[in-house]
Amino acid sequence: MYGAQLIGALRRRDPLVSFFGVGGDRMRAAGCETVVDAKDLAVVGITEILGHLPKIYGLYQRLIREADRRRPDLAIVIDSPAFNWRVARQMKQRGVSTVYYVAPQFWAWRQKRVRLLRDYIDKALVIFPFEEQFYRDRGVDATFVGHPLAELPHPTIERADYAAQFQLDSTKSWITLMPGSRVKEVRMNLPTMLESAAQLGPDYEFLLPVAPTLDREFLRSLIGEKVAELKKTHSPKITLVPDALPALWHSRAGIVASGTATVEAAMMATPFVMVYRVSPLTYLLGKPRVKVPRFAMVNLIAEEEVVPELVQHDFTAANVVAQMKEILSDGPARDRMLEGLARVKARLRASPGGSGTAQHPADRAAEIILSPQVQP
Fold it and tell me: How does the average pLDDT of the chain come out, rounded?
């Protein structure tokens, strides 16, 4: 998503620029020739990644060979630090200037790895307001350009039309379930979400946006297995939908896995409960390395708990239902959360100078990328 936005912004300034690299459907549609499909790199977790290393290393080598053949003028790496700092190192060795857009969250854990950006990155374009100072204090040339989701327009489709399109009951409240964008994440998060949906009862219908990295049949199979287990209780109606933003916009609330989806929910002003679970070994190895007091991105941005966080052992259906009941009904708890989400959106939209601007973050990023200070 971020790559496609950036390609569009760069092409508006220089129609002759061309792109190749790692990407998915959105980047292909924007005009990037994808040497590696992003979904082949969509693995999460410390232990989970081990079995995928040979494949990932092969894709990495393919990308570098293609870079050697094409000799790019500039490299732009987006997020995915375990993969991209190695790409940046190879580009540095070849004398190719490299920009990091959506910089790694080294402030959250592995802070010593900031040296990788100092050594291999010419410019870091960061999307959270607190990141600019964090990286600058550690010798990285970083600029806050705003969050790419902060300028998302609200969906224009009316609720009645949306209900008709997906055979939903418009008289009921809808709840969006967002279990993650990777298969392992979904396996860990979705079953408990479905248990929560069953316990919330028949007054609600549930929307599950299908991430581009996931297969619908995989989701249907997982839902079918869990619903069969829940046959003694209410079987929730789960509707798969293609896009997250309209689902969130028209939903009363959400149950959202930690990650970018929490920012999407905030931008749509949808109250939600943040949940997350990884394998026990990954949690055991990873938790001592975490250097921040909160998991949810919106809470980190707000510097306070705006949404409840149910992580690992706390992520149970009973806990989810209890928290959801607090925010589904009108009242002080829901109002406080909506006010907090509005503050998060305001912080993400702020310009680097603090004056605010209508310019999209991707346009600010493109302006910097094409400036003489970055261009080789």
Answer: 88
